[in-house]
Every structure is written in C-alpha cells, then in structure tokens.
Input
Amino acid sequence: MLRLTTLISALALGATAAMADDIKVGVSPGEHAEIMEEVARIAAPKGLNIKVIEFSDYVVPNQALADGDLEANSFQHRPYLENQIKDRGFELVEIGTTITTPMGIYSDKLTDIAELPQGGKVAIPNDPTNGGRALLLLQDLGIIKLAEGTGLVPSPLDVTENAKELRFLELDAAQLPRALADADVAIINTNYALASGLNPKTDAIAMEKPDSPYVNIIVTRKGDEDAPWVAPLLDAYHSPELKAFIEEKYEGSVLTSW
Output
C-alpha cells in the first residue's frame, strides 16, 4: 500500500510538472521588475513559472520578444508600443494592462517648477513617445506651447512658444537621473526615478496628471494571445493580492489599472 501511494504521489507530481508553463518575461528596472517578481510568486502555485528578465533600456525588450527570446514583456505604455510597431515593424500585441506611472519633473537646484530660469536646461527622454510625453507635461504646466496636430509624439522642433527660451537635452531615459547635476530639471519616468532613489511623491517638483493615456501593458507576439500561459499570467497580475502589494509598496506613486 505504501509503495502504491508513493507511486500515485510521484505520478501526480509528474503530471503537475508536465502541466506547468515556463515563460520568460522582459521588464525594465524598478517597479516593473519588482512587480513582476511578485507576480511570479503569486503565479507559481498555479503552475506558471515566470522567469523575470531585466533590461536596462526601452529598446531591447521588444526586439527580444520579436526574436522569440521572451514570451512576453512588461515595461511600456501603449503609445510607445504603437510607435515601435510603426517604426520597426514588430508583430506584437497587447494582452493586458498593468500600471500607470505618472512622469515627474525633478531638480537638484529648484524647489518649484515656476523657478525655471531663463535659458534653463531641461533634460527629457530621447525616444519619441517619452520625449513627447515630457513636452506635453511642460505644455500642461503652461511652460511651453506645442504645434497643433503633433498628437502624443511632439519633439522639441514642435515647440512654438518658449517664453523662457528653455534648452532641451535629449538623453537616454535611463541616464536622466544622472543629468540632474547638469540640467536645471530632468523629466524622468517613474521606473528610473525609483531605481535611482528618487521618490516621486516627495522629490518631484511637478507630476503628470493620473488620467494620462500612458497606461502600461503586457505584450506578446501576434498569434500568442491565446497561449495557455496568458490567462494565468493576467490572473496573477490582476489579483487583489498584487493590487495590495503595489498600493502598500509604492504609496500612490504607481497606480493600478484594474
């Protein structure tokens, strides 16, 4: 009887292992990586084994996904994905929403955005969607005005009114926290702000409104939308347990989409 029970248990364990899915999910540093690690913990008992792969920039994760090195990625908002598909021809699709991380303006020199000096240096991301997002934030604050019709991807060339004659420094998004030493302000994505020790709630001198169109998403290759790992991944991400984790850990600097 003991041997039979042991055999049945072994077969059950083998069946569970056979049913388990192993997937690689690409993320950017900071909250996307931290949250996906928690998603992996929640999903593991349900038979989904997630290996979190961290990338240091915004360019490589979509290429790695398109090349088949990942099953999914979680680091970008919709406008960024749309621009990548347009520019690089990726056959990638959104399978679910994740979080919103309001972009902030930071400074080592100023305590109020109204203190921006004449001819001040403003560091912004050098990719079209996040650079455009930074400029739209400045427009919302009444600091600059942009040409009509530029949508979500304006560039410094689209600035039509610039009363302070601000100079724009376009830098890799990951390098923006380091630019605080040289620029008057830097407009930084929340993941890179958090990774560099900045607290969006206490350190930012201005923040994007929470109702912006930049909700982040989980992305996979076209054709994998109904893969067996998709539903358990989204169930784990959209679970009450993960929502509580995000609210407690980030205290409002990262907002959930569900």
Observations:
- Residues 104-207 form a domain with the D-Maltodextrin-Binding Protein; domain 2 fold (CATH 3.40.190.10).
